[in-house]
Write a sequence for this structure.
């Protein structure tokens, strides 16, 4: 029976593969509660000696993550509330950045906004041919300010700018693979899951000291991101209060 209630779950198997799975009935969108729970689970697993590698996935078939919850976006009434909400995305990115374990992303379908940010914050990203991506924030009167640094770090300024400016366009999985967001893409989830499990097991067999050191080198130059992403969350928190943003969000909510 399909679970209709939102959730964040973390499980660890006997090999040390920690799986973090989230679900929301609105195409795996991300309200503040789920954002905070994902960040907390990543942070907790970082110090858990029984966890050797982390796999981040969402439930369902064709939607990895629809990004920010429109319901919560439309309910933001002041800058403080806006900053708190967008800080949820910053917290996930920073949790991935600081985590001592390598993180594998499993992207089974479309990813929008914060979903692209999450895919950018993992260390190795698997996807299917159905995993088109879009940074839709500019179309909402906001802009991808919080996830932008993570996306730019992974695919470069030029490709990130392309996504950010052409905010209504879906870019297919092949494009994301060519730009370096995805490490590998597959015809279906079954093939992808075999590859995810295989790589996760190989990492579990590796030296934990080596993977920790490798992870640290991946994120060199991002030591200021606590402050940077906080500033970016404030920018988004202000912009979401504008008339144009409220109008755009309302229009999408009532499609």
């Amino acid at each position: 029976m399909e679970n209709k209630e939102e959730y964040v779950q973390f499980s660890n198997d006997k090999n040390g593969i920690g799986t973090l799975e989230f679900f929301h009935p609105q195409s795996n969108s991300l309200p503040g509660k789920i954002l905070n729970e994902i960040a907390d689970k990543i942070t907790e697993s970082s110090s858990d000696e029984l966890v050797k590698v982390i796999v981040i996935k969402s439930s369902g078939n064709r939607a990895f993550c629809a990004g920010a919850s429109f319901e919560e976006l439309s309910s933001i009434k002041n800058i403080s509330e806006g900053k708190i909400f967008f800080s949820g995305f910053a917290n996930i990115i920073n949790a991935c950045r600081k985590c001592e374990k390598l993180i594998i992303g499993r992207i089974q379908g479309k990813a929008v906004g914060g979903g692209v940010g999450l895919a950018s914050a993992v260390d190795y990203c698997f996807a299917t041919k159905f995993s088109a991506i879009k940074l839709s924030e500019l179309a909402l009167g906001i802009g991808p300010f919080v996830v932008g640094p993570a996306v730019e770090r992974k695919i470069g300024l030029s490709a990130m700018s392309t996504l950010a400016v052409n905010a209504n366009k879906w870019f297919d999985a092949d494009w994301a693979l060519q730009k370096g967001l995805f490490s590998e893409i597959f015809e279906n989830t079954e093939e992808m899951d075999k590859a995810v499990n295989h790589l996760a097991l190989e990492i579990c067999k590796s030296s934990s000291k080596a993977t920790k050191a490798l992870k640290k080198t991946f994120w060199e130059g991002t030591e200021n991101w606590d402050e940077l992403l906080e500033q970016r969350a404030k920018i988004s928190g202000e912009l979401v209060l504008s008339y144009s943003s409220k109008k755009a969000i309302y229009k999408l909510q009532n499609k």
